[in-house]
Write a structure and sequence with these properties.
Layout (H helix, E strand, L loop, with lengths): L1 E2 L15 H14 L3 E4 L2 E2 L6 H14 L4 E4 L2 E3 H7 L14 E5 L10 H11 L3 E4 L6 H5 L2 H8 L3 E5 L10 H11 L5 E3 L6 H13 L2
Parallel strand pairs: 1-2, 2-4, 3-5, 5-6, 6-7, 7-8, 8-9
Length: 209
Amino acid sequence: MRDEHCHILWDVDDGSQSLEMTRSMLDGVRACGFTEVVCTPHMRWKDFDAAKVHAHYEQLREMAPDIGWTLGYEVYYDRLLKIGIERAPEFTIGETNEILLEFNSGGEVPDGWQRTFWTLQSKLGLDIVVAHPERYATVLDDFDTVYRFRDMGCRIQVSAGDLLGGLFNKPRRCAKRIIDEGLCDALVSDAHRPEHYAEYRRARDKFWR
């Protein structure tokens, strides 16, 4: 079983804060039954350090050789525009052409995203994966945005923890609808802390078919 999205690498983003925390998260990875994991540290802030990410990734592989590891990134859309979308191939998942993109949680999907996606796909040959659309205000206001992502050939991830909000929690309702309407390509842990793996198991057992 494969987890396509997590923040298990320590001291590189807002995920694991220490090597000790990463060791605890590894227990969660195994408890979930994951045999393959894609590490997706945020490429969002100015202090992003690719060399540090790679060093910690190699150390993680040595720590847990029983897991099939892949390095990718969770690329913040606005940050990519600032550094130049021609650099997008630097941040693909492993040896694939897939790139995981996120918009601002709770914020709008910016106007013009279709043209940017088209450029990434047709000019740079990338396959786009959209992270947690259930968190974006644009999607909460207009669910058909998820269909527009799919119409452009994007894969859709739902973060398991978003399924565990209260009954009237909008991201929870949206996440469940994405699954119910067959639009979810991957239910992911999006784990930042050890306890997030327990949340993944709860959400998977309750909602994922």
